[in-house]
Design goal:
It is built from 17 helices and 19 strands. It is of the alpha+beta class and 494 residues long. The chain has three domains: 161 residues, no CATH class; 162 residues, no CATH class; 123 residues, no CATH class. The strands form five sheets. A seven-stranded antiparallel beta sheet has the order 8-9-11-15-14-13-12. A hairpin with a 4-residue loop joins strand 8 and strand 9. Helix 4 crosses helix 6, helix 12 crosses helix 14 and helix 16 crosses helix 17. The chain is globular, with a radius of gyration of 25 Å.
């Protein structure tokens, strides 16, 4: 789905120098490259457009070689394959990229924070999705540019610019140095699709909602998904994700459907599937339905103005959701139903100020994925104090037993999980998982990192942020942290 960067568009606009028209600089290409005629033609047209009417950038063109610093390991390959033709205010770059003799140059994004992805399979396709506001680049898709993009669409039609047929280009796979079809040598066999076991609730949905539900949980390369996204929704399908670009999706407002794709579904039945060393084949992880779908959901009208109206149809909510920051109840009513017991697909209907409908793979919430020492420290203490849900450690029962006997460290258990610590790894005691989520994410009145800095002291970490002075989760360190852990989790410790 579209990413929001730390800097807001408002801040970007305020920082840009005022000008009446866009500046266009397309004098020449870097050595070894040629500026395509279409780039020159559209550049001449953009030069006549009001600044801001097509997005938030100052200069179209400013053609330059790809900076070596963006990826030092692939610097020469990158420079040989492409060149920058549009720099965005946050430092990201759009590159015209040679994908091979039989394919047109693609447009790829080199993100300022290391993001990398294919934006379009050709310059023509890029201009077409830019005109529609579907580049997934905030500075180009901003709602303020709607009229300008309409003019771009008109220009493309008048000049009969149509996107050529081209295979989707996997930029991450290219960076990995191999063919997009080549999996890493140590990749596990892809998991078999889960057997579908539709529930009675699924059969109560309309045909369009049922169709969407049948796609959730499938890989994006499944024929059903490809056909639905490209033919029914008329959208471009993102074929891969990576650790730096871990989710993608499509927004089809006219159809009343939004879909999210990711390889990182926090459910053990949906392990990541490698395509290349650093790219993955994502799943359809969730879909949101809107009124334009043209069907009501379980008989609830989209115009429902209060939770009471929904209660009158569905009965008492299955849960109430609090504010994610304070964990205080804010009156968000939630109704959750299983749609497929085999594939673990759920329907979630919510009401706060308006009706919300989501169909998604049942997934956990991530507590910590990377910080193994501090997380291992907590896991050891939690294991010893009965806070772990042992049913979620069935594959590591022997190791868990060793940790509980103080014969193994918490980091060993953390490493064995492979995908980090999730809320479902903790007991399903009232409020425990919700509190742990806030505590790990610095969203409440306490924070694991802040607590451990108080216990062990602090130092400047590798990313210039203060961190606890803790290099090993020894049992002596667990004992030192035990007092503050017990204070935080006193409600759930026997």
């Amino acid at each position: 789905m579209r990413r929001r960067r730390e800097s807001t568009l408002g801040a970007l606009r305020a920082s840009m120098r005022p000008m009446s028209k866009y500046s266009v600089k397309l004098a020449s290409a870097p050595k070894g490259h040629v500026l395509p005629p279409l780039l020159l033609e559209v550049g001449a047209w953009i030069k006549k457009q009001d600044h801001g009417s097509l997005g938030w950038f100052d200069v179209f063109g400013g053609v330059e070689a790809i900076p070596k610093e963006w990826d030092e390991d692939n610097a020469e390959r990158l420079r040989k394959a492409g060149f920058v033709f549009l720099a965005l205010p946050d430092g990201s770059m759009l590159v015209l990229f040679d994908t091979g003799a039989k394919s047109p140059p693609a447009v790829v994004l080199l993100g300022s924070e290391g993001d990398r992805r294919t934006v379009a399979s050709s310059l023509e396709e890029f201009l077409a999705i830019w005109a529609k506001g579907e580049t997934e680049i905030d500075e180009l898709d901003d709602e303020d540019g709607e009229e300008g993009r309409a003019l771009l669409g008109k220009w493309l039609k008048e000049h009969k610019v149509k996107a050529p047929k081209a295979k989707d280009f996997d930029f991450q796979a290219w960076l990995d140095g191999g063919d997009a079809k080549t999996a890493p040598a140590k990749a596990a066999a892809p998991p078999k699709p889960l057997a579908r076991k539709p529930t009675a609730t699924l059969k109560k949905l309309g045909p369009k909602a049922q169709n969407v539900a049948s796609l959730v949980g499938l890989r994006v390369d499944a024929k059903e998904v490809v056909d639905y996204v490209t033919k029914v929704l008329g959208k471009k399908l993102v074929a891969t994700t990576s650790e730096r670009n871990d989710d993608a999706g499509v927004i089809a407002d006219k159809a009343g459907v939004q879909m999210s794709f990711t390889h990182d579904v926090l459910n053990v039945a949906y392990p990541p599937i490698h395509k290349t060393a650093k790219s993955f084949i994502p799943y359809v992880s969730a879909a949101w339905l809107e009124p334009k779908l043209g069907e009501t959901i379980l008989g609830v009208p989209w115009t429902a103005a209060s939770a009471e109206e929904v209660v009158a149809i569905l009965g008492k909510p299955t849960s109430m959701r609090g504010d994610v920051v304070t964990d205080k109840k804010q009156g968000t009513s939630v109704w959750t139903y299983s749609l497929d017991d085999g594939a673990q697909i759920e329907l979630e209907i919510t009401f706060r100020k308006r009706l919300g409908v989501m169909i998604a793979v049942a997934a956990a919430s991530e507590l910590e994925k990377y910080d193994r020492v501090t997380t291992g420290l907590f896991m050891a203490w939690a294991a010893e104090n009965g806070l772990l849900d042992e049913s979620h450690f069935a594959d590591h029962a022997a190791l868990l037993a060793q940790v509980k006997k103080r014969k193994a460290q918490g980091t060993q258990l953390f490493d064995a999980l492979g995908r980090g610590l999730w809320d479902v790894h903790l007991k399903d005691a009232e409020g425990l998982r919700a509190f742990a989520y806030l505590w790990f994410h610095n969203m409440g009145k306490s924070w694991i990192t802040g607590d451990l800095k108080k216990v062990f002291g602090k130092r400047v970490g590798p990313h210039d942020h203060d961190e606890p002075k803790l290099d090993d989760d020894t049992w002596a360190a667990v004992d030192k942290a035990a007092k503050i852990f017990r204070e935080r989790f006193a409600k759930w410790v026997k």
